[in-house]
Structure formats: structure tokens, C-alpha cells
Amino acid sequence: MTASAALPIPPTLDIHLSRAALADALQSDARCGLTSSPKQLPPVYFYDDRGSRLFDEITKLPEYYPTRSERWILDAHAKDMALISGADTLIELGAGTCEKSRVLLDAMQACGNLTRYVPLDVSDTVLWEAANALAGEYPGLAVNAVVGDFHRHLDRLPAGGRRLVAFLGGTIGNLGPEQRRRFLVDLDCVMDAEDRFLVGTDLVKDRDRLVRAYDDDAGVTAAFNKNVLNVLNRELAADFDPACFEHVARWNEEEQRIEMWLQSTTEQSVRVDGLDIDLSFDEGEAMMTEISTKFTPEGLEAELAGCGFVVEATWTSPGDEFLMTLCHPYC
Question: What are the Cα distances from residue 236, in Å, to 14, 106, 151, 286?
């Protein structure tokens, strides 16, 4: 049977992260972050339905260049990535709606290698919808969706074949230095010698341009940032008033990263019934909600090497704004 005559293969779904486990993780992370100094929250909790819609709006804003820059690289060089990797299986970490995956899938299919796609994400609903859509769009493609957390479930990724593990969107920049090191070492441990790792990273550039990308004139990023308070209100029975916080984006020169904060506009108290804690905020006190580290090509290569990876090829977008790096384990 030719590829064009292949029949759709029903997708499969492996669940390694239940909704109960997600709820437990939110409680643990929120308790730890809200009682630390300064207060902070991990960015994964931005992405409820409203947060996901707002982020989709952000990617289309004139100030927000990373999504366009990465897409330019994919459109221009996805076939090179497919040829160099020689992969028959695409694994995407933090796949979401799997939109960018299609560019790589098309390139791998054009090279005659594509047999399997493995998207991993924490949202079972979004993942299952995307898996079914892709199974219909790519007859003959085995879609093995995995509900899991790339911090904890890399060892649950399906083995076999020659795998290209993609970590797109600059998401690796949302991890602090120790988190990145642990993630990369864990990934290296589960990859075979023939596997390849493709990572997208935002590059250090003009500071004003960086800040504008996270503090747009239309206020979409501000709404996205404040939405995490709605998530806490809904999931943990908290009584945050988003109107009493303002969005702040700062460049941290020492850490080479953008930081997003929610700054209290008044002295206030907040009750979180789900955690049985009371919080107090001073006027002007800020809570960190996201980091987005920016890299240099040399710094990224050194970081990858320190975790067991050898850089094989790199591609940059016009203006050297965004970098995509293909690498393989030392072994």
C-alpha cells in the first residue's frame, strides 16, 4: 500500500499524570511558592483554557517576535533537520495543540522516514483532540500521545526507532539553571546514540525589544499574567482580586532573563482556603510568575556539553533573534 493510500491509524493515549496528580502538584507548588520570599508561582499554571487563548493572542502580537522567528526557521530548514536527524519518530515535549509539529512532520514525511509521532503534554483534553486531528491528517502515521510532565516522565516516552525529540518555543528558557541542568541530564539518560534533540532558544538582544515582547501595548500579556490569579481562585478557593495587581516585565542582567511579576497596587490580604493559609501583600510587593532566559549560541553549546550533548547543527532567524539547535548524546 502506498503512503497516499494508507489508512488512518487510531491514535493511542498513555496517561502517566492524572488530574488528581495535577491538582496535588498545584497545591504543593502554590504552597511552596506563595510562602517563599519573594512569592512566586511556576508558569505551568498559566495555561488553563483562557490562558491558552490569551497566549495564542500573544504569539500574534507585533511585539512578540519569538513565535514568528522560530516558525521562520522551521519553514526554511525543517527538511534539513529531518535529513540530518534521519529520524522516523518525532517526540514533542510540551506539545499543546501540536501546531508547529506539522512543519516537522511534513518534512520527515517528505524524506520518506516518518512512521510515528509522540506528543507529550499535561493536558489530556487538548492532547487527545490534537492526536485525533493528526491521525486523520497523516494516514499511516502512528500517533502515540503521552499525558505527562517532562520534568518527571521522560523515562515513560516510547522507545524504538530513531527518535527526534523536539522542545520548541523557547520553553527551556522558562526553567532556572538547575532545572535546565536536571532536565537535560535526565533527557540524555533516556536517549539512544541514534536519537537527536532539537531545541529552540531565544537569543540575547536589545533589552528594550526584549521587555516590549513581554509588555505589549494592547495589554494582552498583562491579562495573561493576571489570569494565573483566576486559576488560583478557581482551583484553590482563593480570593485574589486581579484588579489589585499590575503586570511588570523586567530584564535581569545578571541572570540574562526576562522576569514577569505581579505587583500589588495596595496593601492587602488574600485568603487561600484550599491551602488553609492567609497571605499579606505590602503595597508594591511583587510576586514572580515567569522567567524567560535568553541565550548566546556559545553559552547554550557549553550548557548542552555539560549535560552530555554534542551540537550537530544550528539555524538562526533573520537578525539573529532566535536559535534552533540540533544535537546528539555523547554516547
Answer: 28, 42, 23, 20
Angle formed by the axes of helices 101-110 and 66-85, to 10°?
A: 30
Instruction: Give per-residue burial for 270-290: e unless 16+ CB within 10 Å, then b.
Output: bebebbeeebebeeebbbbbb
Do strands 142-147 and 12-15 pair parallel, antiparallel, or not at all (unpaired)? parallel
Residue 5: pLDDT band (50, 70, 90) is low
**HEC sequence for the chain:** CCHHHCCCCCCEEEECCCHHHHHHHHHHHHHHHHCCCCCECCHHHHCCHHHHHHHHHHCCCCCCCHHHHHHHHHHHHHHHHHHHHCCCEEEEECCCCCCCHHHHHHHHHHCCCCCEEEEEECCHHHHHHHHHHHHHHCCCCEEEEEECCCCCCHHHCCCCCCEEEEECCCHHHHCCHHHHHHHHHHHHHHCCCCCEEEEEEEECCCHHHHHHHCCCCCCHHHHHHHHHHHHHHHHHCECCCHHHEEEEEEEECCCCEEEEEEEECCCEEEEECCCCEEEEECCCCEEEEEEEECECHHHHHHHHHHCCEEEEEEEECHHHCEEEEEEEECC
What pLDDT does 304 receive?
98
What domains does the chain contain, in order, with CATH numbers? Answer: 8-17+62-204+294-329 (3.40.50.150), 45-61+207-293 (no CATH)
Mean predicted confidence (pLDDT) in 193-219: 97
Q: Is residue 3's pLDDT more than 70?
A: no
Pull the grid cell for residue 283: 503595597
Q: Over 70: is that where the pLDDT of 166 sits?
A: yes
pTM of the entire predicted model: 0.94
pLDDT tens per residue across span 105-144: 999 999 999 999 999 998 888 889 999 999 999 999 999 9
